[in-house]
Amino acid sequence: MNNATKKYILIAVLVVPFLYLLYKLILVGANDPIKYIFTLTGTTAMFMLIATTMLSVIKLTKYRKILGLGAFCYALLHFVNFIILDAELDIEFIIKESLDKPFIYLGMLSFFILAFMATTSTKNGFKKHSKKHKIIYLAILLVIVHFIMGQKTITIEHWWYLLIFIVVIGVKGKILLSKDY
């Protein structure tokens, strides 16, 4: 199987959570659609972000951009859900919620970091800003904290995300410090 085919398969896999979201919202129905969209898009974006950092550890960097852009797309859906469906485009409400609930501005900060990374992921943009793309680790940490604060509790799922993040940081740090890198 050639690289182009593998990339198309990866893109198809990345679309699956979105298709599941549509299925759940349109055909099955969700009790609280806005909350369901928040949960599915946020969790998917976080998972894809963490997976993106893991790709370089396992030497699959050629798929990192596609996965990172997929994570951004789900983060964008998460953000749009907040702005349009939850806040109903009410700027005053958005500002008030952001000031009252710190997890919202942590989420927004991580979203804007991802937006920067997505817009600079072109060949020329990445060449110019590649060192700045290391900010992904801050974005992931902010997303995990955003997720925990949004749930108002810490569950075993949160601990798994934190553990995986710590392991990736540890492995990446070890790779960066090795003489072979």
From TrEMBL:
Cellular compartments per GO CC: plasma membrane
Membrane topology category: Multi-pass membrane protein
Membrane-spanning parts: 9-30, 36-57, 66-84, 104-123, 135-153, 159-177
One Pfam family, short name: Ferric_reduct
UniProt KW Transmembrane keyword: yes
Keywords associated with the record: Iron, Membrane, Transmembrane, Transmembrane helix, Transport
Cell location: Membrane
Example GO molecular function: FMN binding
Residue ranges annotated for the Ferric oxidoreductase domain, each copy included: 48-143
Name of the molecule in the record: FIG001196: Membrane protein YedZ
Organism: hydrothermal vent metagenome
